[in-house]
Amino acid sequence: MSTWELRLILIGIILLLVYLRYRRSRKRFLELGAKLPGPFSLPVVGNILPFAMRPDDCMDIGMKFCTEFNNGPIRFWFLNELIVFVAKPQDIEILLSNMKHLRKPWQYQLLKDFMGEGLFTNSDNSMWRLHRKMITPAFHFSILKGFLPIFFEEANIFASKVLEEIDLVFGSDLSHTPTSEDLQKLEYLERVLKEVMRLYPSIPYFARVLEEEVTLSNYTLPKECIVCIFNYGLHRHPESFPNPDTFDPDNFLPERCRARSPFAFIPFSAGPRNCIGQKYAMLQMKAVVSTILRHFRLTPGKRFQNGGPIRIKATSTIKCLDSVDIVFHRR
């Protein structure tokens, strides 16, 4: 036997011992992961190929698995990483209401290059715990009123019920700068905006790392696995939203909201680590959209007139694959 053959055998034995030690150290983790429902997983690469080969279809792939596995939990292996998709309100409530599961996975570090170190990208909770209580008072509604002049200054640059409501609240005086009280009266516009966020949430998924074992829908998820809250699938769950693919602002009538779980619609996340700027975002959306609709009438462009679908993809946020074909007509 040659020296090279001996070296190869030795390397093989070492690799086998390392692998066996790895399996032993993660025995409980791997056993629980194997019991979770999910698609067929290839050795080594796991389930990464469908997502890697069709990155523009990730939302459709996710919805396919949500339908197949009844909105989770759904097990995926990405190399040696166990990622569990959940899209049921009752499961998400258990996760997001627990103060122990606040840590975000290491993948959030990849966003720091263009988002910087902040409450969203901080994965170990150190900055979040330090600054959340300090920043929260700055987003009180009374303080947000001060941003209105800025919103309307920038908004001079969106159907009929919305327009009727806007005309009823603001009248025909286009020079009138709306107040926060005016915006609060735009109840139908708020329902329209929420329905848009239901169908097309700006953040279609977000993740947490489990600090201890958790039982969801009669399945035990292991400590240190990554749980992906799939907003896009959650918001299209037929148990929460009948006719989930139909645009219906009445989904957000008060009586319908009371009839479903508060965790059925979470475009800004939920629980202790929810989005601190959600009131700011809603105020800004109402300000900008109402200002545009006071000055312009919007109609769909040729692509949408021909029944073209809205094709989307997900990166760190949801994006439209095609141009947004809308025509503005001055009123």
From TrEMBL:
<dbReference type="GO" id="GO:0016705">
    <property type="term" value="F:oxidoreductase activity, acting on paired donors, with incorporation or reduction of molecular oxygen"/>
</dbReference>
<keyword id="KW-0492">Microsome</keyword>
<dbReference type="GO" id="GO:0004497">
    <property type="term" value="F:monooxygenase activity"/>
</dbReference>
<dbReference type="GO" id="GO:0005506">
    <property type="term" value="F:iron ion binding"/>
</dbReference>
<keyword id="KW-0560">Oxidoreductase</keyword>
<feature type="binding site" description="axial binding residue">
    <location>
        <position position="275"/>
    </location>
    <ligand>
        <name>heme</name>
    </ligand>
</feature>
<keyword id="KW-0812">Transmembrane</keyword>
<keyword id="KW-0479">Metal-binding</keyword>
<keyword id="KW-0408">Iron</keyword>
<dbReference type="InterPro" id="IPR002401">
    <property type="entry name" value="Cyt_P450_E_grp-I"/>
</dbReference>
<dbReference type="Pfam" id="PF00067">
    <property type="entry name" value="p450"/>
</dbReference>
<keyword id="KW-0472">Membrane</keyword>
<comment type="similarity">
    <text>Belongs to the cytochrome P450 family.</text>
</comment>
<keyword id="KW-0503">Monooxygenase</keyword>
<keyword id="KW-0349">Heme</keyword>
<dbReference type="GO" id="GO:0020037">
    <property type="term" value="F:heme binding"/>
</dbReference>
<dbReference type="InterPro" id="IPR036396">
    <property type="entry name" value="Cyt_P450_sf"/>
</dbReference>
<keyword id="KW-1133">Transmembrane helix</keyword>
<dbReference type="GO" id="GO:0005789">
    <property type="term" value="C:endoplasmic reticulum membrane"/>
</dbReference>
<feature type="transmembrane region" description="Helical">
    <location>
        <begin position="6"/>
        <end position="22"/>
    </location>
</feature>
<dbReference type="InterPro" id="IPR001128">
    <property type="entry name" value="Cyt_P450"/>
</dbReference>
<keyword id="KW-0256">Endoplasmic reticulum</keyword>
<dbReference type="InterPro" id="IPR017972">
    <property type="entry name" value="Cyt_P450_CS"/>
</dbReference>
<dbReference type="InterPro" id="IPR050196">
    <property type="entry name" value="Cytochrome_P450_Monoox"/>
</dbReference>
<protein>
    <recommendedName>
        <fullName>Cytochrome P450</fullName>
    </recommendedName>
</protein>
